[in-house]
């Protein structure tokens, strides 16, 4: 067995008997023996908030040592919590409380990388497999008292705080070069005043070689930090992830070349759908690693090929037993997020107590014990039968469906926006219907306008038709245009829309911060409110502070809608609310106003497809339950 230095940090929720976050970590720490404050380089600590309890192992040489320390630390904090009449939960988002920025819970692994060259290669190599790891590890589907549309809400766009900054856990790791490592931070943080602040902000990515200082030595840790995992309750699963990362580290020594692969699309799919998603295997990916052996793009098949590719190294390191919890996920085609959804939807009264038990009592057991958990997967057609439509929206949806059946009577712009509205309101639409709608869209597309191309890309993306050659060609074309300065030539709203679309599509190699700042600088007193909304969305997606612009929009809000001299108020309000809703802003007064206007549109003899589709897009989260 090959030994590698490895440490783990776990952030655990401190809650009351109802599962709500409480800010009582100091009480628990008072009950912890003093020796655990000097537990080598690890220990038991308070994290950023007093609802976050952190346990950290020493730097361990073997998996056995790592497991022993985790068990010991968990036993200590569990006992201390019981003495304080408090409880612990091992999930990445509290099911009841909506977290503040950073108030989400992760498991972080530190892998030995004692040279700059090693850090660089390890970062760029592990980055390739981030989608597969997200699909396996997602464990935060329940948040704010409902089942979200994400398997990992911690890593999703729903954790944006529009009044502050982007949640630090959600940024995709960039492909680094030697200059980045020597510099000690990412160049996009050059504007910060101090080296420490530049380095600190460079850490908040899925992976980071820009580690913080060790508490014992006051030197930067010679490790690569893996930050993408959701916290979970089971120690065997932590050991399984440790075994996987160590196996990949050994595999790297047998790899000569590490390519720069665009993983943005697959990463987003894994965060949203977990193991039930499908990946887009691009042509350049099929020439390397386990993707050579993938015939089906389903996540299950990709992960199966991933483990088959690592099989020699798993055997070489003697990790067949330790890796089994992840193999169980693969066998049953579900992960802990699916387990949580099952509990919450079928046994809601037992949901919180099950989380207590898994975190404080059963944490040494195998994840997903078959004797307790029965999970039935259903097809999309079955799910659709169970959908409960909002009656105010259903009639408008059906009206829009009828309109696009006569596609020759409406423009390309109206048709594309209609397709976006239909899919956002009904994500369970049958595959054959999706293909039919997309094929009609392609017939209407001429490519004569930049805005039309952006609409095409967004529509193909949301309809999961990104394997088409027209998508790849136009995505590359738009990316090149963004780098070439098209944002300075186009109208401001089109420029903002372009950056927003390409960021969502996975354009992580774009200098998004620089481009978003250019858009911000073009705002004037004459800029319409709906254009400012597009720019706010771009700023937040790029990780920039948009509090000033957001405050400006809130001031312009007239009780329940936005007014715009040059644009219909319904269209303007729909665009603004759709943009702000995507970054976490909610306003019931605006929703009710849009619903009333939607009802007026349905009852009107004059049909405005553009207004109807924009309104439906803005109300998509209200459409179905």
Q: What would you note in describing this structure?
A:
The protein is an alpha+beta fold. Helices cover 49% and strands 8% of the residues. The chain contains 26 helices and eleven strands. The protein has helices spanning 25-31, 63-83, 116-127, 130-137, 178-183, 195-201, 235-252, 264-273, 299-317, 324-332, 336-346, 348-360, 380-386, 391-405, 412-425, 431-444, 450-462, 469-483, 492-504, 512-521, 529-541, 547-556, 569-581, 588-603, 609-618, 620-623, and strands at 6-15, 43-46, 52-56, 87-89, 106-112, 142-143, 146-147, 207-208, 223-230, 557-558, 561-562. A hairpin with a 2-residue loop joins strand 10 and strand 11. Residues 160-168 and 369-387 have low confidence and may be disordered.
Indicate the topology.
Blueprint lengths: L5 E10 L9 H7 L11 E4 L5 E5 L6 H21 L3 E3 L16 E7 L3 H12 L2 H8 L4 E2 L2 E2 L30 H6 L11 H7 L5 E2 L14 E8 L4 H18 L11 H10 L25 H19 L6 H9 L3 H11 L1 H13 L19 H7 L4 H15 L6 H14 L5 H14 L5 H13 L6 H15 L8 H13 L7 H10 L7 H13 L5 H10 E2 L2 E2 L6 H13 L6 H16 L5 H10 L1 H4 L2
Antiparallel strand pairs: 1-3, 1-4, 1-5, 2-3, 5-9, 6-7, 8-9, 10-11
Helix pairs in contact: 1-2, 2-7, 3-7, 4-8, 7-9, 11-12, 14-15, 14-24, 14-25, 15-16, 15-17, 15-25, 17-18, 17-19, 19-20, 19-21, 20-21, 21-22, 21-23, 23-25, 24-25
